[in-house]
Amino acid sequence: MATTLSGVSGAFYYKPAGTQATFASADVTVAGVGADFINVGANFNFKAGDPVKFRLVNTQTGGSGTGTLPAPLSAATTYYVISYNNSTGAMQISATLGGVALEITDVGTAASPNKFEIYYADFAAVAEVRDWTLEISRSDIDCTTIGQTLGQYVPFRKYISGFGDATGSATVYMTDEESGLANRLVQDVLLRKRAGASVKLYIERIEAAGVINEAKSRSIDMEVSLTSAGLNINPDDAVSVSINFRPAANVNFDFATT
Questions:
Q1: If one looks up domain 7-13+125-254 in CATH, what number appears?
Q2: Phi, psi (5° rounding) for residue 209?
Q3: Which of 5, 63, 102, 243 has the largest CB neighbor count within 10 A?
Q4: pLDDT tens across 127-158, in order?
Q5: What SS3 string covers the chain?
Q6: Start-end ranges of CATH 2.30.110 in the chain?
C-alpha cells in the first residue's frame, strides 16, 4: 500500500550565487609558500570556508575543456577558500578547512578557448528553511489552420509545445550567523555576478549515517535566478524572509527511487 509523503521529509539545499568563475594561466601567481594566489576576478561572492572544485572548460561550447590544471590542483578534489579579495579578485585556497594556504607549483596550461573554472563544490543544506514551493508551467504555441471541415459543433484550436517555466519560493528564518547559507540567500538577490546559484529541492530526503542516499531520495534541482526577498519582522514571530526564484536553465527531476 502506498504511503503519503510528509513535508517533514523535505529539505532545501543551495549553492550560493557568485561562486563560479573562470581564469587563465596568467591569473595564477606562483611565489612560494603563503604567497601563491589565483585571480578569479573581482566582485564575486566567495567566502572564507567555501568548498570549491576546479575543472577545465571550453568557453565557446560550455563543455569540458582540455589542458592541465595548475599543480597540485586536481579536478576530483575539494579545496577550501582561505581568503578572497572582492576588489582585486585574488584568492588563496587550502587543501583542508581552516588549513594553511596551498602551495601552487606551476600555472597550468589552457590554450584558448579553454580556461580554468572554479565552482562551489556541492549543494549544502539550508537548515533554517521552514517551507518551499515550486509552481511549474508551460506555454503552448497556437498552430490552428483555416480550411477545416465544419460540422454541427465548432472546431477546436491546435497547439504544439512551447517553453517551460517555473516560479519558486522558500521561507527562511534569519539567524545571527553572518556566513550562514540562509543569510547568503538574502544577500545573493542583489548580486550582479550570480553564476553558480542553484537549488536542490528534496521532496523526500533519505539518509543513512548522515549521508544522503540519492538513489532513494526524490528531488528537483536547477540553476536559479533569485528574484526577490521579502522580510517579515514583528514582535510575535521569528524573523523570516521569503525568497523568490525562477530557473536559469533546465529543471532536472529525480522522482525515481530504484
A1: 2.30.110
A2: 55, 35
A3: 243
A4: 889 999 999 999 999 999 998 889 999 999 99
A5: CCCCCCHHHCEEEEECCCCEEEECHHHEECCCCCCCEEECCCCCCCCCCCEEEEEEEECCCCCECCCECCCCCCCCCCEEEEEECCCCCEEEEECCCCCCCCCCCCCCECCCCEEEEEEECCCEECCCEEEEEEEEEEEEEECCCCCCCCCCCCCCCCEEEEEEEEEEEEEEECCCCCCCHHHHHHHHCCCCCCCCCEEEEEEECCEECCEECCCCCEEEEEEEEEEEEEEECCCCCCCEEEEEEEECCCCEEECCCC
A6: 7-13+125-254
pTM across the whole model: 0.89
Take residue 136 and report the three cell numbers written for it. 511549474
**pLDDT tens per residue, range 81-116:** 999 999 999 999 999 999 999 999 999 999 999 999
Write down the residue that cell numbers 609558500 correspond to. 33
Determine the residue type at 88: T
